[in-house]
Amino acid sequence: MKLVMIGNGMAGARTLEELLKIAPDLYDITVFGAEPHANYNRILLSPVLAGEMTVQNIMLNDVDWYGKNNISLHLGKKVTRIERGARRVVAADGTAEPYDRLLLATGSNPFILPVPGKDLEGVLTYRDIQDTNAMIEASKRYKHAVVIGGGLLGLEAANGLKLRGMNVTVVHLMEWLMERQLDRTAAQLLQQSLEAKGLQFLLQKQTAEIVANEQGRVRAVRFKPAPGKDPGDGSEIVAELVVMAVGIRPNTELAQSAGIQCNRGIVVNDTLQTFDPKIYAVGECVAHRGVAYGLVAPLFEMAKVCANHLAHFGIGRYAGSVTSTKLKVTGIDLFSAGEFSGGAGTEDIVLNDALGGVYKRIVLRDNRVVGAVLYGDTADGSWYYQLLRDKQNVAEIRDHLMFGQNHLGNTGHQGQSRAVAMADAMEVCGCNGVPKGAIVRAIKEKGLFTLADVRKHTKASSSCGSCTGLVEQILASTVGGAYQPQEAKTKPMCACTDHTHEEMRKAIKEHRLLSISAAMRFLEWRTPNGCASCRPAINYYLICAWPHEAKDDPQSRFINERAHANIQKDGTFSVVPRMFGGVTSPDQLRRIADVADKYQIPTVKVTGGQRIDLLGVKKDDLPAVWRDLDMPSGHAYAKALRTVKTCVGSEWCRFGVQDSTNMGIELEKSLWRMYAPHKVKMAVSGCPRNCAESGIKDVGVIGVDSGWEIYVAGNGGIKTEVAQFLVKVKTREEVLEYAGAFLQLYREEARYLDRTVHYVRRVGLDHIKKKIVEDADNRKALWARLQHALEGEPDPWKERAAGKDGREYEALAEPA
Amino acid sequence: MEAAVTETLKPVRMARWIRVCRPEDIPELGARVIRRTGGDIAVFRNSEGECFALLDRCPHKGGPLSQGIVFGRSVACPLHGWTVHLEDGCAEAPDTGCTRSFPVKIENGEVLLQLPD
Prior knowledge:
The structure holds two protein chains of two kinds. Chain A is α/β, with parallel strands linked by helices. The longest helix of chain A is centred in the C-terminal third of the chain and has 18 residues, at 732-749. Chain A is built from 26 helices and 39 strands. The radius of gyration of chain A is 31 Å and the shape is elongated. In chain A, α1 packs parallel to α8 (296-310) and α14 packs parallel to α16. Chain B is an all-beta fold. Chain B has a domain at 40-116: Rieske [2Fe-2S] iron-sulphur domain (Rieske Iron-sulfur Protein, 3-layer Sandwich). Chain B contains no helices and ten strands. Classes of the chains: A alpha/beta, B mainly beta. Chains A and B meet through α12 of A and β1, β2 and β5 of B.
């Protein structure tokens, strides 16, 4: 089949990339581009204009890329005719090309004000490399520049020309700058900062005419008089260069001439198909559900869906985008998304520190974020944006919403929460030692747009993830509006599929899928046996949904869970036997000591969870070590219940009001062997002094005189999170039932690798209370399901000490 | 990006084929290890029944590849999750570096491995 693409910009080239990924051999592809360049990163034209980057830096797909992928590339050829009957396109130079499918990616044209003098020499628009080069040339010869349009593009152009040494005045029709993205207050702060950089502004001025000098080059811009003034009274300012940046219009000329339905843009449905089923369209040239987009992020989403349909996969719909904006002017930190201007039914939360230059406004409707404007501190922009896109209920976090996600507890990057304030040499990712400069360089040089790309290329935030927020900020400030955090609800499990975690769980439950291969077959996995990311997740979902029935697949478990011990950096393992409630005995300690001697275990260490860790055990020795220890598995290696930490409690402590030690032992005995989406840590304290640190556990119990308080979703690791109060109960049985029910709910609803804190943040504590506290029947049912799942679940160490899975631990004989 | 540790390849002299085990001794989508003084060798089997042998050291930080999750014709290193190709021992882009691979064949129900003398 033949695919012809008209337009060689970012949306079109991205569609081809996506298509080649999933159906590399389906089409013979021909591309027509009107510009003489291959595909470049248009959003980085501003740094080129500002002299921070060169044109070579911003190429995304060079000519070689087309060659390597067997794509015929016609550069500098403008297609002038689509013959739909004959199914072929014809370029201005007569080149004709037949097609089976046609992809229109003709982009947009800058809007040109219909004023006298618009065609004079020295009047430019700001759209492509040619415009950028013309502006750079003009800045060398002339002094006075006027930019018409105080929107995103106009301000970036003005900033670039100023940095090139020109006197720049920005003329804007409206009352304040970037009125489509900013409210008045934020816009005024922005204007002040830009004025401090030396830009000048004329607001509420409408251009009447561009005036020529004797040589026919622009010399001034003349304005319409203010209303009520004498018509001859229009003022003017000197201009040797005029840049019109007053908006873009979808380029539909070609489509219209071929009789393809257009309305503002080329009209497409949710599969990016035009009214002619053989013709698709993506990018700035389309109108989807009546909206034409001028930012890059939605174009990439379109590209993905369009490629999927061109490849005959037929899944995926484009449902429109909520866009966010980031101004790429060095030193200015600005973020806006959604409905920022408020209106009926909305409420604002505002922080305005005029002296500190920080302004934040979060717009809520029905306890959901619908818009955000941030100026001066955009650290949490992507978080608000995520909340907005996920339509998450923020009732529970309202009181500290304004302070963002990063207000406490993040470790590993020197307490920094603002990427812009960081020097290039400062380390962003403490796990992989990646400095800010390396991330910025990779984003620019490799043309990265997503967090996943950055992780792949730089490793930053790919280990513990605590610097994810910083990396997102760096990404956002480097690529601007092109960066769009993926909507978690629609995020596919991994590259093997387009299905989400939730869809997988639903399919497993509704269709009684009992094995990984059945689940993958049912949801049409693209890979024969998944990958190291989806297989462990599916394995967990299966055994969670169908305990005792689904087939647990050791080969789909991470080595620690397969070998039931923790792999160490040298390939040896660590062994942590279970000590219920942190209580041990002389006999156990003696056995541990004997085992350490007998197997020459180099390190014996007390853990943070009140147990003892034997480090440096050879894999071959593991079954014998377990046999000699004769203690239960501590599951310190598993996404499962780890430990229940306790304080001494009322049995000995003079302050204790409850017997926390025995409560902890009881909890641990009822819940051990419980696998979960991630590790689960618990604690029980015997009084509010809380020596067991229940406030930072997945489930924390605190004894008070009249009973027990239960806290959930705390975390003491990467990100310190204080657990939230769930309920107060009277009896030990109730503690078991509520804690168990909460954990079962987490097991059933969380995504694999979500800790309780992530899960509760996503669904909201209200949801948990509804299901556990307010609905007694549901609580009892959850608790019963967990007990059923744990019933008869063996101790993995005991089984292996008796010989199960022997070959996992035995090396093959060395060949003679 | 981190610099990868690449093993310097010594010139391979004429090698011999040696019997290792039967294919079914290796778990499907899994591996077994041959402990050896020149460095352990991991022998993998995938779902197509193909077998591969690599030096049991990830090109990244020397992690034991035999302990990783096997999928398709790749293994994910258990230490930091690098994906290493089973045919040639090379890391998947954008990571770089290769670990040594050894020729393997299956004959008369036996897995044979070619080791340099």
